[in-house]
Amino acid sequence: MTAQAVLLAYFELCVLIPLGRWNDQPGNNVAFSSGNIILGAAIGGAQLLLLIGTIWRLKPLLWFGLLGDTVWLLLHIYSLWVPYIFGASPQYARMYARVWGRTTKLLPNFGNHLAPDAMHIFIDVFVIAVIVTLVAYLRSLQAPGTAVERPPQVAG
C-alpha cells in the first residue's frame, strides 16, 4: 500500500505543479491547468481505486490496478526505454527535443540514444514497486485458509 500512496502522491505532484526542469514539459508550465487536471484525475483516480481495493481487499479492483499499472509500465518501456536502449528515430528525436529537451536527466544521452527524463524514471520505479507489491499481495490473498472475500470490519 505504501508504494501505491507514494506513486499517487508523486504523480499528482508532477502533473499538477510546475517543478522547473524536473517536469518541464509542454502544457505543464501552469499549476493546475485543465489538461493536467484531467490527466491527474484519470491516472490518479485509477491509483486511488487501486489503493481502495488494497485496503478493502477487493480483488476486482486489485486485478484492474495490476492490469492498468502493467499497461502503464509497458507504454513507458515502449515510448521511453526502447528508444534509449536501441536508438531513436529522427521523428522521435524531434518530439524528444520538444517534450523532454529541457528536463532533468539522470542517464546520459549518447548518439541517438535519448535518455528518459528523471521524472519518468522515478514514475517507472514507483510503478514497478506497485506491481511487485501488488503481485505479492494478490498471492497472499490466494493462500489457503485466508478469509479475504470480506472487507475488514470497522470497529464502532
Quick structural gist:
This protein has 156 residues and is mostly helical.
How would you describe this structure to a colleague?
- This protein is mostly helical and 156 residues long.
- It has one domain.
- The chain has five helices and no strands.
- Helix 3 packs antiparallel against helix 5.
- The longest helix is centred in the middle third of the chain and has 28 residues.
- The radius of gyration is 18 Å and the shape is globular.
- 22% of the residues are buried.
- The mean pLDDT is 89.
| SSE run | HHHHH
* Shape, principal axes of CA atoms: globular
Largest sheet: none
User: What amount of the residues lies in strands?
Assistant: under 5%
Distance between the termini: 24 Å
Provide the domain count. 1
What is the tally of beta strands? 0
The value of Rg in angstroms is 18 Å
Mean pLDDT score: 89
Total helical elements: 5
Overall helicity: 55-70%
Structural class: mainly alpha
Contiguous low-pLDDT stretches (5 residues minimum) are: none
Features:
single chain, 156 residues, mainly alpha, 5 helices
Layout of strands and helices, then pairs:
Blueprint: H1 2-16, H2 34-56, H3 59-86, H4 90-99, H5 118-141
